[in-house]
Each structure stands twice: as structure tokens, then as C-alpha cells.
Write a structure and sequence with these properties.
The N and C termini lie far apart (91 Å). The strands form 4 sheets. Strands 3-13-10-9-7-8 form a 6-stranded parallel β-sheet. It has a 3-stranded parallel β-sheet with strand order 5-4-6, sandwiched between helices. The chain has a domain of 124 residues: NAD(P)-binding Rossmann-like Domain (Rossmann fold), CATH 3.40.50. The N terminus is likely disordered. 38% of the residues are buried. By secondary structure, it is of the alpha/beta class. It has 11 helices and 13 strands. The protein binds NADP nicotinamide-adenine-dinucleotide phosphate. The site of NADP nicotinamide-adenine-dinucleotide phosphate has 26 residues, from helix 11. The site of NADP nicotinamide-adenine-dinucleotide phosphate (NAP) has 26 residues, from helix 11.
Amino acid sequence: MVQGSVRVVQARRRQRQRRIERRVDARDPGPVDLDRQRRWIGIRIRIRIGIRIGIGIGIGIGIRIGIGLRIGGRVVTATVLDGKLVAALVKDEVRARTQALAARGVTVGLAVVLVGDDPASAVYVKAKTKDARECGIDATDHRLPADTSQAGLLALVARLGADPRVHGILVQLPLPKHFDTDAIIAAIPPHKDVDGLHPENLGRVAQGKPRFTACTPAGCMRLLAHGGVTVAGASAVVLGRSVLVGKPMALLLANADATVTLCHSKTRDLAERVAAADIVIAAVGRPELVRGAWIKPGAAVIDVGINRGADGKLIGDVEYAAAAARAGVITPVPGGVGPMTRACLLENTVRAAELTLG
Ligand code: NAP
């Protein structure tokens, strides 16, 4: 009986020790960047009321009431960049610009083309047209069946390209597999390519003379600016090299004088590269690939990834909670980059209309 009781006490002691070690690990910010670190001096009052029933040599019942006081401590807590808030600011600007154009007799027009019945694409298209209309943009939906031919879609793009009431054309991606997506994008007149994916517009970004910037990277840059992140001179790591996100993102950061490393699935030493970065942009589409422990204390972390977790919830490419304990600023998923992508589409569209006035 006594031996059993001793074993229980020892097991409890080990459990308590493990709990303490876990808490210490969770709090330890590692090597701290003093420029970014927020010092925390706090007082924690803990009131414990418990009933203890124990069986040892005898049987005992006791009541424990304790008050603990702790002073001090250090945490690095990221500022969360609220994409919805920044997107709302962008939308206010867009609304003012559409009103100014309306005063000059121009109604901004956006044509949104959806081919097939992919449910996620349908949701995106609905949200984009709703946003546009809220900002005074005349958004029209063009829905085509999934078995539309390449020639059929090209014909619609040509018609919209020639329509003076349409300032921006957006073909929702991905297209069904039988389409040559590059050829469809190349058929959009560059001055109406508000998604910023036409080779001419991408090339202009590469030249540092952008006309329309791809919406997601543009949104990331706006978030960095809103977060007060100094890009010039910073060391930036972009994970993912897609034409949609990673490559234009790397170019925008380089144009803003960051020193950029573009990583992809063949990159070795990903953790070390991320750990050295002042700015991390994760756009890989792999849930929580970027571990919180990799993040340099005080770094800016922009999570582009949208993944579905095992519980059905949306999660990003970054291990959020652990990264937020080290980063200086961080975007959540959802509610970070996503709303900014949509807002930047509206900004490109109003710009397209403004450019027609010279
Ligand atoms: P993508 O075309 O599939 O490209 C993924 C990139 O990630 C590729 O360059 C790939 O490398 C790289 N990659 C994959 N696994 C990797 C690994 N283990 N380590 C390092 N790099 C790896 O995807 P995407 O269109 O760029 O989108 C990326 C993510 O962003 C997705 O989750 C997507 O849903 C999301 N997204 C969000 C928004 C938004 O508005 N929030 C907009 C667009 C995309 P390789 O080139 O070597 O294959």
C-alpha cells in the first residue's frame, strides 16, 4: 500500500516536472532580437481552490486554498496583421476612386469569367463580384459550362477585350484540365489583365515598372506596409515559386530593395534559410510546413497558404501559434492574405479604368 502510494507520488512529480519543462519551452523565445522584442513585466495572481482526497497509509481529505504571485517574465508576441481590416481600407480607397471616375462619366466595369462548376471557384467568384459591386464597380458574371472549348473561351475573352464598358477581365483559375491556361491568359488584352498574370504585366513587374501586379503578392506587400515592416535591406525568404504567387512576390520584394531567397520543393536547408529571414512569405500549400521554431524572433511572417486541416478548418503553411510567439508581425489564416487578394483585384480594376483616361 505504502509502496503504491510512493509510486503514485513519484509519477505525479515526474508529470509536474514535464509540465514545467513544456511551459519553459513554450515561453523561451530563443535568441532574442532586442530591436523587436517586447518586454513583458506582469503580475499573475493565481487562486487555487482544491479538494484533495488521498489514500495512503490512512485516508485523508483536505481542502487547499492558495494564492500565488508571479512577477516578471519575457514573451515575444506578434502583432497580428488583420487582412480584413486592411482590405476594408483598400476598398474605401477604391470606392472613392470609382466615385471620382463616375463624376467624369466613367462606370468601372469588371468581367468575371467562370468555367465549370468547381464549388470553391464559384465561392471566390461570388465574393469577388460582391466586393466589386460594393465599391461601385459594375461586375458582370460570365459562366460557361465545363465542356466549353478552348476556342469558345477565347471567343468570349476576345469579345470582352473589345468591349469598352469592360475595363478589367478576370478568368477564374484553375480552368478545367483541357484548357491551355497560358494561352487564355495571353489572350486577355494586357491593359485589361487585372489579375496581373499576362506575360507583359509579369514582365513589367520584373522590370520594376509594374502596371498591374498579381493580386496576392500585391496584397502581401500592402500587409507588410501596414505592419510597418521595413523591406529595404531586409533578408526575405519566399517559399513557393508559382507564377501566381511566389515569383512575382520575390520580384516585388527585390524591387523594394529586399535581399530575396526564393525557395521551392528542391531547396535544401529550408529551416536554416527561414531562420535567417527578416521576412518570410509562405506560399507552398503544405499545412504548417513552416515550423514556429524556425522563425527568427521579430520576423514578419506572411502566410499565403490555404489548406484544410483534418478537422475541416482552414490552416496556413505556417505553424501559427508557435510562429506568433516569435514573430514581430504575422498574418492569420483565414483573415490574412485572402481578403487582401480580393481587395487588390478591385484596386487593379479601378486603375485599369483610370488608365483609359490617360
Ligand atoms: P503551387 O502552384 O502549387 O506552388 C506551390 C509551390 O510550393 C511550388 O513552387 C513548390 O515547389 C513549392 N513547394 C511545395 N512543397 C514544398 C516543400 N515541401 N518545400 C518547399 N517548397 C515547396 O501553389 P500556389 O498557387 O503558389 O499557392 C500556394 C498556396 O497559396 C496554396 O495553399 C494556395 O491555396 C494558396 N493561395 C492563397 C491565395 C490567397 O489569396 N490567400 C492566393 C493564391 C494561392 P516546386 O516549384 O519545386 O514544385
